[in-house]
Write the structure tokens for this entry.
Amino acid sequence: MKRALHSVAIALSLLLLVTGCTAGTAGNSEPVKGPSSETQSSGSPKLLKIAIGGTLPAADPHMAYGFPANLPHFAMFDALTRFTDTGELESALATEWKSVDPTTWRFTLRKGVKFHNGEDFRANSVKATIDRVLDANNKLTITSRVGNVKEARVVDEYTVDIITKGPDALLPKVMSVVLIIPATYYSQVGAQKFTDNPVGTGAFKFKELVVGDHFSLVAAEDSWRGRPRVDQVEIKIVPDASSRSAALKTGDVDIAHNLPTDQLEDLKKSGAQVVTTVLGRTATIFVDPLKDTPLKDKRVRQAVLHAVDTESIVKTVMGGYGRAAAGQILGPDGFGYNPNVKAYPYDPAKAKALLKEAGFPNGFPIKLETPVGVNVNDKETAEAVAGFLLAVGINAQVSPLEYAGFLDRTSGRNVDGRAPLFLYGPDYLPLMDGDFPLSFFASSHPSKRYNNPQFDKLFLETRSTLDIQKRKENFQAIQAMLHEDAVILPLYQMPLILGVNKNITGVVARPDQTLWLDKVGK
Amino acid sequence: MRELLLRRLLTLLLVVWGICTILFLLLRVSGDPVTALLGADNPSPEVEAAIRKAYGLDQPLHIQYVRFLGGVATLDFGESFQTKKDAMGLVLERIPASLQLTVAAMLFSITVALPIGVIAATQRRSPASAGIMAVGLLGQSTPTFALGLLLIFFLAVKFGWFPAVGAGSPRHLVLPALTLAGPLLAKLVRLIRNGLLEVLGQDYIRTAHAKGAGFSRVIWRHAMRNMLIPVVTLIGLEFSYMLGGAVIVESIFAWPGVGRQLLNAVTARDYNVVQASVFVIACIAVLANTLVDVAYRYLDPRISYD
């Protein structure tokens, strides 16, 4: 008996020995190191730690797109243009731009900018970047984002022309996501070495990347953007949202990105700040008018729209975060927003009356597909919608989609297999423009959701005119069409929630889902 | 012994080949890596076609398979679609972290389970034994994520003894290892207790007692070896499972292991990383089970493999 207790004691000391002896080699495997730099000499360097979900596959700015990749990439690189915190386009590496003929945009470049390795920024780097990005053999994610660009031409050292395939009013905005790489350095080292040791013009320099674990940056001393307020940044991948919250509370990180709504009260009590915004992404139920279901009848679709109380969903499912949609996909922060369109009023009695009139007094069964875990509370939102529909007699079956199936639905594969109701948050970020989300309703879109020649005409005009006012009017008109035809049930603009340690300043959550680190201070 | 090892090598090759082939087919049936690479939008068909061609995905299936097998023979699994880095290299980078976690969890489980199992067996009717069995049942029934989050909440957030997430120091290893060890510990305790109970009733134990052997000599010299076979089997099985399957622990603690890497690769349809990952885990699994078979021979010399 005593021996057994002794054994327990030995076991526990062995455990301590094991944990002590396994020197922390985990997490230090083969990091890719960039050129090191000296930090501030006064005191210890200010290190900003951010916890995010998702993956950071590469330090190369063209190999990934959108959040979270844009977090380190926008810190290390610049584009010709960029968006302000309030959604206006401003100059970055280009100081002005204008359309010189229907398919040519001329950009005047900023003077006095150097890359981190000392190379001067000139028009040749813009051309080299565009050439690289347009070549599909490079297998870059960003290639499909610049579909309308034909080529770039150097006019002189500080002027470059971007030639488009057709008139493209969006081109200056599209350029905001094409990050510029140094022509000479890239041609010397090649793609493989460039991704291991990237060089840009941004406020931060690359330090190291351990794929799947963390991405480290260090402040650049001579960037045209000015010196950032912190010296080093470490972006940690923490897949689980509760763990991100916990890491913020223990002080392991300073900023926790994308937290679920149910943990925020607790966080606020522990003294952290909650910084939030609504994104350029509206959770929307797509109501299919073309398939052979009861939804073919417009009255039935109107019943669906009247049956759901979007304000209540924002309050209960989203905890009050997010912004209820005004009967259209674009929010007030999107180009093409129609201030005269309002959400269908919540009126279950009217919904039932419409159903009866259309010949469905007892409702009908129908399938509602939803992705799971792609956006905050997506499945819960679908379930809430199904609940409202059930109350008027429409028996909506919520069918969860795994990520592959979800991609099929959005890209238009397997049109026959999909359900008549589909929850999706089509982006109008980062360009904050109606082009992408409304393209789903053009009859030429492979997913075949809507067929309205009038819609097609007005939509195509937005893609072929350079007249900003006309684009806006057309977008407003086609959004009104979708509203009138009741083919969408826009629910809410999705919230973005950041947990921030109380001694951190300068954190701004933006609708385009970028987080700029220049002004963040500790 | 040499025959055994040779036969095992053959089995290893056969098993790994079978797994790789099934995986190869499953991956190509499950969906398209190019759409996953380009994102949820509608990429232009030319770009899609060009990328597909660059990765050889437009070739007929049997040609892709032959190229794949050729690569496997030289341990070249191609490049990761997402990061463009060597797929096998990426997997090998993460293996040490997974091994560290698995070994730590195993050592903890075994060293704690043995004495506790002994107590539970020898103090059969005492409250201590009942308590141990109850805690064991709890440990086996508690979901991993619940255990992990509870440990984070109490030991990291409330008391601040350990960091909540990450890797890089011995302190970072404790909470994830404890979480991973929990279910195995519970299973081992029950197995050891039941095995011992059965063995302790045997005649030769009574003989040993009669010959004057002390308690500890009876347990460790006579009883243990006779009941260790199921325990060693469990350890061998669990080792492979914990190595590749610790996804939940790795996600909660942001531990940079192969489980999470494999899951991300599957979601992103990064075929080459999935294939490299499964290959490595399968090899280690077969190795572990071979060691278990070798251990049998030492535990029970009566076992032979003719």
Remarks:
- Residues 18-41 of chain A have pLDDT under 50 and may be disordered.
- Chain A touches chain B through 72 residues (CB under 8 Å).
- The CA atoms of residues 79 and 180 of chain A lie 6 Å apart.
